């Protein structure tokens, strides 16, 4: 059974869902919403209390000001507010993509609230040697969104990130027509989230010197993606090798049960590396 909740926070009405029983685990995405993680949450709910959420401005998490930018820091504060609402001092956290960046900000801004963070493929472009060029590419995507629309912006995003291309060398088209909600979430992503997420600089001393254990996750099939490079760079800064997960950037969608088993082991440190101070 899944219980849905709405939490009123400054400037936002946050939607989150709770399922299962056992130690608390939060699953974070950005811009991916709670529904995208439902299969993974279901797979983990047999032995965990699993919380999924819609990040601010996405799907059911409504903003008072729709033009407010989404930053990792704001999203981290939202997660801390959800922990407060749950009456939880701390939790384990799995974050994927922009949600992994949220998790890194949560560890830095709210010491002691995270027991173990598994940060799966955070797109931390500022950690790459060609960060200035990457910034320009992101700026061009956002400009393309405003001038040419979301379809053209997604084409540039997919090509830049390294996802599979079609036979003619162009990025492969999406498998189906997006829903109205998908379109709204995509617009939010390009207009108000992408820049803040990709330009986030993790606080390495806070990640390595605090009470939280931080594990970097990387997809076994992600070698061609930008997030492989960013994840490797973060792992090097943290001084521990990344943990390999099945699949690529969305491995939790295509290989859910196996992904859940690897995540369980990473959370308890069974065969997983991480940096922490106890």
Describe what this molecule looks like in 3D:
The chain is of the alpha/beta class and 278 residues long. The chain folds into two domains: 2-128 and 200-268, Rossmann fold (3-Layer(aba) Sandwich), CATH 3.40.50; 131-195, no CATH class. It is built from ten helices and nine strands. The protein has helices at residues 38-44, 72-86, 98-109, 131-148, 150-161, 180-198, 204-209, 226-238, 251-254, 256-268, and strands at 2-9, 12-20, 24-28, 49-53, 62-63, 91-96, 114-120, 213-219, 243-245. Strands 1, 2, 3, 4, 5, 6, 7, 8 and 9 form a nine-stranded mixed beta sheet that branches. Helix 1 (38-44) links the parallel strand 3 (24-28) and strand 4 (49-53). It is globular and about 50 Å long. Mean pLDDT is 93; it is low at 165-173.
Catalogue the unreliable spans: 165-173
**CATH level-1 class of the largest domain:** Alpha Beta
Give me the CATH fold name of the largest domain: Rossmann fold
Strand content: 15-25%
Keywords:
single chain; 278 residues; alpha/beta; Rossmann fold; 2 domains; 10 helices; 9 strands; 43% helix; 19% strand
Give me the secondary-structure topology:
Elements: E1 2-9, E2 12-20, E3 24-28, H1 38-44, E4 49-53, E5 62-63, H2 72-86, E6 91-96, H3 98-109, E7 114-120, H4 131-148, H5 150-161, H6 180-198, H7 204-209, E8 213-219, H8 226-238, E9 243-245, H9 251-254, H10 256-268
């Amino acid at each position: 059974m899944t219980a849905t909740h709405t939490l009123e926070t400054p400037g936002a009405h946050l939607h989150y869902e709770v399922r299962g029983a056992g130690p608390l685990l939060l699953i974070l995405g950005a811009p991916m919403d709670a529904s995208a993680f439902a299969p993974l949450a279901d797979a983990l709910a047999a032995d965990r209390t699993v919380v999924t959420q819609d990040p601010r401005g996405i799907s059911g998490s409504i903003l008072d000001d729709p033009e407010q930018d989404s930053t990792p820091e704001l999203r981290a504060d939202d997660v801390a507010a959800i922990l407060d609402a749950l009456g939880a001092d701390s939790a384990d956290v799995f974050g994927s993509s922009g949600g992994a960046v949220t998790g890194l900000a949560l560890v830095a801004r709210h010491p002691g609230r995270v027991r173990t963070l598994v940060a799966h493929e955070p797109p931390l472009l500022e950690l790459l040697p060609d960060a200035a060029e990457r910034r320009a590419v992101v700026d061009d995507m956002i400009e393309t969104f405003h001038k040419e629309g979301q379809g053209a912006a997604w084409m540039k995003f997919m090509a830049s990130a390294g996802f599979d291309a079609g036979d003619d060398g162009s990025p492969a088209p999406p498998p189906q027509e997006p829903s109205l909600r998908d379109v709204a979430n995509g617009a939010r992503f390009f207009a108000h989230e992408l820049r803040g997420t990709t330009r986030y600089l993790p606080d390495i001393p806070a990640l390595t010197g605090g009470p939280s254990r931080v594990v970097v996750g990387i997809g076994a099939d992600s070698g061609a993606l930008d997030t492989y490079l960013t994840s490797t760079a973060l792992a090097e800064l943290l001084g521990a090798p990344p943990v390999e997960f099945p699949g690529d950037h969305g491995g939790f969608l295509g290989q859910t049960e196996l992904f859940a088993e690897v995540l369980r082991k990473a959370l308890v440190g069974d065969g997983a590396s991480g940096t922490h101070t106890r």
